[in-house]
Amino acid sequence: MIDFVLALCIALVAIALIEWLKKPFPKVSTWVWWGIAPLLCIGLGFVATLLALGAMLGLTGFAIATLFYDLVLQWAKRKIEGTSSPPAG
Q1: Cys staple from 66: which of 16, 38, 41, 46, with CB 3.0 to 4.6 Å?
Q2: How far apart are CA 71 and CA 30, in angstroms?
């Protein structure tokens, strides 16, 4: 039987790891990341079946923190900097 919560955690961790890896490798093509994603999910699936719940929980926490920083905090920072800067012209 498929554990959909675990599958969701694996997908979340894979997305966060790819986003995290994009920072040191900004010139890598999007197609490479698309190719890595399923392999990473399969690998994480195998690892998740071998790891204790605490390790997967830690990886999921890392994923949520990474995505929260990239999506929410950076967006808010851009909004604050955009509204606090003087108008052009």
Answers
A1: 16
A2: 18
12-41 confidence digits (pLDDT tens) = 889 888 988 988 998 999 899 999 999 999
What is the C-alpha separation between 59 and 61, in angstroms, rounded? 5
Query: What is the rounded end-to-end Cα distance, in angstroms, of the chain?
Result: 62
How many C-beta atoms lie closer than 10 Å to residue 32's C-beta? 11
Closest residue by Cα to residue 35 from 59, 60, 18, 11: 18
Q: Is 54 exposed, middle or buried, given 0-12, 13-18 or 19+ CB atoms closer than 10 A?
A: exposed
The structure's pTM equals 0.69
**CA 87 to the chain's CA centroid:** 34
